[in-house]
Write a structure and sequence with these properties.
It is a single chain. By secondary structure, the protein is an alpha+beta fold. The protein has 5 domains: 51 residues, no CATH class; 280 residues, Glycosyltransferase; 92 residues; 48 residues, no CATH class; 204 residues, Jelly Rolls (Sandwich), CATH 2.60.120. The chain contains 35 helices and 17 strands. It has a 6-stranded antiparallel β-sheet with strand order 6-5-9-14-11-12, with no helix packed on it. It has a 4-stranded antiparallel β-sheet with strand order 4-17-10-13, with no helix packed on it. A 4-stranded mixed β-sheet has the order 8-7-16-15, with no helix packed on it. The radius of gyration is 31 Å and the shape is globular.
């Protein structure tokens, strides 16, 4: 069905969702009628359809405050939540909404919910979301029946906490998860707020734990994105709601601390909330769909309604359409376009947008109640007094230009996307000075990229500025362009900043890395200064120090001192992402290129660090059982990156446990055989051929037998078996091209621009969507379709384009993956948005004892592929709706030809048809794609008993 007009208006050249939302606003302000003219097909007869909405009235200029329509929306949702079978929201977050209405008639429903909890929430996810309402309920009512539950959940968080955070469903996941560290801040950030509120309720919370989690999360405020896991602040604006959650946790800290609005936590709340205005350009962007981020982006913006009124009004008025379309007929909310969050469970949190400005919760600005307890938090939980500058929502002053005018900001021109586009160019000095004092870190950083165009004098002035935010931005400019800016004068000044005990830690974090980019002679001069930061209390500075030491780690003048210090540091380092600096990157590369005597000392040092490792202690054995083995494994892995390291690791294992036949088996089996000594390779080959292959087959025989018979299995084991054969130099069972060679296959092809345009801002995972095919091509994949009669061209694969040129969007590739072949030249230009290809091919007969697969080549790397469908003889064989996401690369894109499909290949000729879509490459930003379809087969290794 096609909508031709609504209330006499046709679609304009804007996102139709915005227009529809505005039509709803207009209709509800009057009689609630939406009169639609619809047709079954383009040019078809139109008919009138009337949709009757509830007339809610018009929004006031100050909505959602002092607004009858907003009040009706709030009451409609409150009434919905109080229905017997209503969805109460994820972990009961709908109860936080009911408390936030300020209407006493909602309390009874919350009371029943609160008294029913009994401490059932045990995951950080659930405690963070549901626990806030429980605490707010107690602070409102003083109902002592819920105090045991509040205490129980606080105890659970204290028990699980490690390194100041949590995983999503427990204390920690694998240390490789979440950027290193096993934490999930999407769940953990609100847990900080819960502990603060629980403490205000009078719960007993261990002081060390409380301050550790506060310190861990506070330091992210004003310094970028709260990271996915245990990392430094992330750059960009796709925070997925974590900065908004941080704002509420800092609000809880401010409500607990007796200094209240005068505390640093109130400032941290505000700067985290201010982020919402700028990041709104990246609406619905984020891990798992982005919808969850809209809950906290909108809610946190309400926290700065009074302090940033212009930004708040622009934010609300320009996102009103989304709130309208997220409301449902029964009064509930969803999150439009939020993918898995577009439902009532998560929409319950989105409704807080309407009530946060009412200041009815302690989290949102209500005064202390008679049940509130105070607790003196540290005046500053992290950094020096200079770091307080990062907790300001005001621009920096003293930049010799008029101070940036926050009151002039508009939604259209000053949110992230237009600002970053504006700052991408080479900035004149006045513009640079204006925006390097901006309150948002990303905008300051973008401005700093132009410093090198203006030289040393301006850089020195900015490095000496009174505001630490300006100094940090200037340091980023230096770090990004050391060849142009790192003079001896600049270097000595940066050294003086590092020697200044009052200097901001966040400035130093960048400054340490910056001096590591100076000439090596200068770095060697300041070796003691850099090494000293390996003993600093903050691991962010440890990481910067390791980066600064990389250029001199193998230097003849100091390698002994550097390696010794790194070895001692690693004995008590439990941060997985710190050892990453040794496992890969600059340090590993320098050691690989070092003289033999340096490599020998590196092997000895890393071996000693392994043997001297001091185990991490935690109350939960399961935390120790994750942290200690994985940290040791990381040290072992680091040792293997040094030439001769695999043999040294083997000897280290034998020294530790002489009776173990093959120590570090998993690491050694993954090794490139060329990196092993002949003796170790022989030992491993004997173990693989004589023990591991039979054991692997025996363990996985049922699955392997199904794969050998070309049956469909969910989690195959054949590739693991083939990998073991490869380790001993047997490649007989590898996949090999079969039938027509990929680069020689000719296809009929046709490309077109469909009327259905891509409506989302982001196409990182492709633009796959339902499209209308050109007239006469509706059954383009069918057996009876004639591509020649339809005027299709004949071309040789691979097909592809990048910005209209016959190039790959990812650039020149050195890919050696036999199932990808993106290193091969393109033969035919893919012209328009969507491409269709098809032809008949002859394949040799399929034989028992072999497996076969059809592949889409050229898209086996992150950022490639835009979604595709592949048909065999007119029947859908595979549909892949997205391109390759993060951690999804280096895999064959296609499907094994299971036995049920073999008959399709018995007739000699087989018709293959495929469709694919162009997209932008996330790194190169070029628009295009590529497609090449071909077949491979593999000989099945012995798997029978």
């Amino acid at each position: 069905m096609i909508i031709e007009s609504i209330n006499g208006q046709k679609l304009a050249a804007i996102d139709p969702r915005i227009q529809l939302g505005n039509w709803i606003t207009a209709a509800e302000a009057k009689d609630g009628k939406l009169v639609m003219k619809v047709a079954d097909k383009p040019g078809g007869a139109s008919k009138e359809v009337i949709v009757q909405l509830e007339p809610l009235g018009a929004y006031s200029r100050t909505w959602p405050l002092d607004c009858p329509k907003s009040e009706r929306i709030v009451r409609n949702f409150a009434d919905y939540l109080k229905q017997p079978k209503a969805n109460q929201g994820f972990a009961g977050i709908g109860m936080l909404f009911l408390l936030s209405t300020g209407d006493d008639s909602d309390i009874d429903h919350v009371r029943k919910w609160a008294r029913s909890q009994k401490g059932s929430a045990s995951y950080p996810w659930h405690i963070g979301y549901g626990g806030l309402a429980l605490c707010e309920y107690y602070l409102r009512t003083g109902d002592k029946q819920v105090l045991p539950t509040i205490q129980k959940m606080a105890d659970k968080l204290v028990e699980m906490e490690n390194f100041g955070g949590w995983a999503g469903r427990g204390p920690t996941a694998s240390l490789g998860y979440g950027g290193g560290g096993g934490h999930l801040n999407a769940a953990g950030t609100l847990c900080v707020g819960y502990l603060m509120l629980a403490k205000e309720c009078g719960a007993e919370v261990d002081d060390e734990t409380l301050q550790r989690v506060l310190r861990r999360f506070y330091r992210y405020s004003g310094r970028g994105n709260v990271p996915y896991g245990m990392g430094k602040p992330e750059t960009g604006y796709t925070d997925n709601g974590k900065n908004g959650k941080l704002a509420f946790s800092m609000a809880a800290a401010a409500s607990l601390d007796p200094r209240g609005e005068k505390s640093i936590y109130a400032r941290a709340r505000d700067t985290s909330s201010q982020f919402a205005f700028y990041s709104t350009s990246y609406m619905l962007h984020g891990h798992t769909g982005g919808g969850i981020g809209e809950i906290w982006r909108s809610a946190s913006m309400g926290l700065v309604r009074d302090d940033l009124p212009k930004q708040y009004r622009g934010f609300m008025d320009n996102r009103r359409w989304h709130y309208e379309l997220s409301r449902r007929h029964n009064g509930s909310f969803a999150i439009l376009g939020g993918e898995r969050y577009d439902n009532e469970e998560w929409g319950a949190g989105y409704a807080l947008t309407y009530t946060v400005p009412r200041k009815t919760l302690r989290l949102t600005g209500a005064p202390p109640t008679k049940y509130s307890k105070t607790y003196q938090l540290p005046e500053r939980p992290w950094g020096t007094a200079e770091d307080d500058d990062f907790q300001s929502i005001l621009p920096a002053m003293g930049l010799k230009v008029p101070v940036y005018d926050l009151s002039s900001e508009t939604f259209a021109e000053n949110t992230a996307m237009p600002m970053l586009r504006f700052l991408r160019r080479e900035l004149d000095e006045t513009t640079l000075r204006t925006f390097i004092g901006h309150p948002n870190i990303e905008i300051r950083s973008a401005a700093a990229r132009s410093i090198h165009h203006h030289g040393e004098s301006l850089l020195m002035e900015l490095l000496k500025h009174d505001d630490a935010r300006v100094r940090r931005a200037a340091m980023e400019g230096l770090r990004s362009q050391p060849a142009k800016l790192m003079s001896r004068r600049v270097f000595e000044h940066v050294v003086s900043m590092l020697n200044d005990s009052d200097e901001s830690w966040f400035v130093k974090e960048c400054a340490i890395e910056a001096i590591g980019k100076a000439p090596k002679e200068w770095v060697v001069e300041q070796l003691d200064l850099i090494l000293g930061f390996l003993k600093h209390e903050e691991w962010w500075l440890h990481q910067s120090a390791l980066a600064a030491l990389a250029p001199v780690v193998a230097d003849e003048r100091c390698y002994k001192k550097v390696l010794s210090a790194i070895g001692e540091f690693l004995k008590t380092n439990y941060y997985y992402n710190l050892s990453a600096k040794i496992r890969w990157g600059a340090i590993a590369k320098r050691l690989q290129e070092a003289p033999p005597h340096v490599q020998k000392l590196a092997r000895e040092t890393l071996g000693e660090a392994y043997l001297g490792f001091v185990a991490y202690e935690h109350e939960l054995e399961r935390v120790e059982n994750v942290v200690n083995p994985m940290t040791l494994e990381a040290l072992a892995d680091a040792l293997t990156k040094v030439p001769g390291g695999y043999d040294a690791l083997y000897q280290l294992g034998k020294q530790r446990d002489p009776d173990q036949k093959i120590p570090f088996k998993e690491i050694l089996l993954k090794a490139d055989p060329k990196l092993l000594s002949p003796e170790l390779k022989k030992l491993l080959d004997q173990n693989i051929g004589g023990n591991l292959i039979p054991a692997y087959v025996e363990k996985n025989r049922d699955t392997l037998l199904k794969e050998a018979m070309s049956e469909d299995v969910k989690s195959g084991k054949m590739s693991g078996l083939v990998g073991l054969y490869n380790k001993v130099g047997i490649n007989d069972y590898d996949w090999k091209d079969f039938g027509p060679q990929p680069g020689e296959m000719k296809w009929y092809h046709h490309s077109f621009d469909p009327p259905e345009k891509w409506m989302k801002d982001d196409d990182r995972l492709g633009r796959y969507r339902p499209v209308t095919f050109p007239a006469g091509m509706e059954q383009w994949f069918g057996q009876d379709f004639s591509p020649t009669a339809a005027g299709w061209k004949l071309g040789q694969a691979p097909f592809g384009a990048a910005d209209g040129k016959k190039e790959r969007i990812s650039g020149v590739s050195s890919c050696k993956l036999s199932f990808c072949k993106c290193n091969k030249p393109l033969h035919t230009l893919w012209e328009k948005d969507v491409i269709l290809i098809r032809n008949k091919f002859e394949f040799p007969p399929l034989e028992e004892g072999y497996r076969y697969r059809l592949l889409h080549g050229g898209i086996s790397h992150v950022g490639l592929g835009g979604g595709f469908r592949l048909y065999i003889n007119g029947k859908l064989f595979i549909e892949q709706k997205t391109g390759v996401d993060r951690r999804g690369g280096s895999r064959a894109m296609g499907r094994v030809i299971t036995k049920q499909w073999w008959p399709e290949f018995e007739g000699g000729e087989v018709t293959l048809s495929a469709i694919s879509f162009k997209k932008h490459h996330p790194r190169s930003k070029k628009y295009g794609g590529n497609i090449s379809i071909f077949m491979q087969r593999m000989k099945v290794p012995p798997v029978e008993k």
